[in-house]
Design goal:
Number of strands: 13
Largest sheet: 11 strands, mixed
Distance between the termini: 39 Å
CATH class of the largest domain: Alpha Beta
Strand content: 15-25%
Number of domains: 2
Structural class: alpha/beta
Shape: globular
CATH architecture of the largest domain: Alpha-Beta Complex
CATH superfamily of the largest domain: Spore Coat Polysaccharide Biosynthesis Protein SpsA, Chain A
Mean pLDDT: 92
Number of helices: 13
Helix content: 40-55%
């Protein structure tokens, strides 16, 4: 792993802001410029270049400041979670903030997130108010919700931001723009590298719940996000990893009774996807609109189930480790899932 550091030696800061990137296109520079405008100053920026070809240096525009920015080069595409873990090891800090390379933070973003965790020591993470870029008065997420089959979806997606204007506890934070307490990351082991892409934020959030941590929603920490700019809004890649990783996280984190419930709920969600597709709604319909057939989607789902089944022995070991170190009971964990739930019908329609 090679490293190029621009005007920083990765000295200790209170916050490390991590930007994993693959394309290193114009959206990354918008993201970096937004971070340079932060009112909170005790932080460094670490870009993890997952391109494998040093695109960050090659594409760096002359007008974008390199002050306080370090670039890490894993040499290959390590995936989202592994990139964050790498940056957290190379630039240790009290807090690790994560932002997608296709998101732009408002000037008070970091200040509001750090303040929220300072005032809530029981919280291991905090979620931003993520708004959809280019869509007037519409949210991407205000934290995350979870369905009976383990599918996670953005809380408030597509709704007006003013409907989610109050700070509160949420189940977990969307990895598109969030902050994590280093103590929590150390205790839980951080992101699961094997997830590669999608659902790694849900997996970490649920493991943090078992470890006794909560999550805060901070509506004053505003970010504008180009939703699914990097991997596409309904690609084969996304369909495979979302489904595979959903299965991995329920095997690792769900109580046994919830696993049985998830297995029953899964075909119900598939049925709702079929109905939504016929009405031209939801991700399944977008998959068709983007030129893929329904049978291609079925093939992605089958491949995901086979891949998850192959990992079952490893998942069982992870599950036992989570249960041994749990700070809450299965009933308390299930209560959290129930409080922050979303219906299978709603999942299919989003």
């Amino acid at each position: 792993m090679a490293r190029a550091a621009y005007n920083t030696d990765l000295q200790p800061y209170r916050v490390t802001v991590v930007i994993p990137t693959l394309s290193a296109d114009h959206t990354l520079w918008d993201c970096v410029d937004g971070l340079h405008r932060q009112t909170y100053r005790d932080f460094c920026i670490v870009i993890v270049d997952n391109s494998g070809s040093r695109r960050v240096e090659q594409n760096w525009p002359i007008e974008t400041s390199r002050q306080g920015v370090a670039v890490l080069h894993p040499g290959v595409n390590t995936g989202f979670g592994a990139a964050v873990n790498l940056a957290a090891r190379e630039a240790p800090a009290d807090f690790v903030a994560v932002i997608n390379d296709d998101a732009v933070a408002s000037p008070d973003w970091l200040n509001e997130l750090v303040s929220a965790l300072d005032h809530h020591p029981e919280a291991g993470s905090a979620a931003s108010q993520v708004r959809l870029h280019g869509v007037e008065n519409a949210l991407d997420s205000a934290g995350m919700l979870i369905a009976a089959d383990g599918t996670s979806k953005q809380r408030g997606h597509g709704q007006p931001p003013e409907n989610f204007s109050q700070p509160c506890e949420v189940l977990l934070a969307s990895g598109s723009a969030s902050i994590y307490r280093q103590t929590m990351l150390t205790q839980t082991g951080g992101f699961d590298d094997s997830f590669f892409l999608y659902c790694e934020d849900t997996d970490l959030g649920l493991r943090a719940r078992w470890a006794g941590w909560t999550c805060r929603y901070v509506p004053s920490a505003v970010v504008h996000h180009r939703y699914s700019h990097s991997a596409g809004r309904a690609s084969k890649l996304k369909a495979y990893f979302v489904e595979r990783n959903r299965l991995l996280l329920i095997a690792k984190t769900f109580p046994l009774t919830r696993i049985f419930r998830a297995l029953i709920a899964t075909p119900v969600r598939y049925f709702h996807h079929l109905l939504a597709m016929r009405r031209g709604q939801g991700v399944a319909a977008r998959f068709r609109q983007d030129g893929e057939s329904a049978w291609t989607l079925v093939a992605c789902v089958l491949r995901a189930h086979l891949a998850a089944a192959a990992r079952l022995p490893h998942l069982c070991r992870q599950r036992r480790a989570i249960q041994r170190s749990a700070k809450i009971t299965p009933a308390e964990f299930q209560s959290a899932l129930n409080r922050f739930s979303i219906s299978l019908r709603q999942v299919a329609q989003l």
